[in-house]
Amino acid sequence: MEMELLEKTVAEIDKLNEEKMAEAKQRLDSLTKPPGSLGKLEEIAIKLAGMSGELYPKVDKKVHIVMAGDHGVVSEGVSAVSQEVTIQMVYNFLNEGAAINVLANQVGVDVTIIDIGVAGELDAEGLIDKKVKLGTDNLAQGPAMDRKEAVASIETGIEVVTEMIENGANLIGTGEMGIGNTTPSSAILAAITDLSLDDTVGFGTGIDDDQLEKKKEIVAQALEVNQPDVNDGLDVLAKVGGLEIGGMAGVMLGAAAANKPVMVDGFISGAAALIAQKIEPKVTDYLIPSHKSVEPGHIRMYEILGLEPMLDMDMRLGEGTGAVLGMNLVESATRIISQMATFEEAQVEH
User: Fold this and answer.
1) Which of 155, 280, 295, 319 is the catalytic position?
2) Are strands 287-289 and 62-69 parallel, antiparallel or unpaired?
3) I want to staple 186 with a disulfide (CB 3.0 to 4.6 A). Which of 149, 201, 218, 262 is the partner?
4) Any catalytic annotation for residue 319?
5) What is the pLDDT of residues 102-117, one digit of tens each?
6) Same domain for 318 and 195?
7) Structural domain total, the chain
């Protein structure tokens, strides 16, 4: 039965509806503005029409999924803070005290917290327990997880997002919490590209220069020890990834299979998008990029995905903070195409 849900989901991801996209472009060009003058808002409106097969798709039920998981590689000293912070922040999310809660509440987004691999037992109201294992193994010494666990992490994401879509969700955000997770994200990017470690490894939560050099060594060691197969997204995820990265990749694949837009957040969400793209390249048609992280590899991820971020706010928090900020812009795009007057309606010469 292994991979049945994953294979079924991948098979359901369609190409965008070109006819509906052409219709959306025609509509946008007839509105009271110079053609193309609303830039990325118009691009988003066209892309949404292609996803949904509707000229006026709705994004009025916004949800945001935060995947929480820990990383064995933290024992190598790659993070500025201790692993206990993962659990502490999960409780902070549940108590509505984190940045993601504040920003989501502002724009009317429901936040769901998933324990997909926290290295400890959590018991809290509102937390959804989908634990695959108690954190990954140390990827500097061997695979982060086995292939079965990698599949389980992705299928967890698919299950979570599918249920939300069945309950009416039509715009989905991806976010994460996991101390040490920029290290596997850097390893994924380095595995998939031939970029140097200077281009793929950044300061994460705020390590110093010496720790940064150590982190680069650890990423190099992880690639050397594990030799991930660059053509196999599951192999890359299992060997040098993270459970929350797999979970977010699953959310992206599941949303794409249901023809729904999903927001890419920062560096770790970008790593999940790379894994999802390796598994099924068409998934990128359903991804909406939010912001460009300060992490050096993030813009390279967007280049590989063929996407361009909307915002550049010097942010590097994670949690999906950029994804939630970007949701307002996506809704703006749907309102422009559906609510603006055409030149004819407004009796404006053009």
Assistant:
1) 319
2) unpaired
3) 201
4) yes
5) 999 999 999 999 999 9
6) yes
7) 2
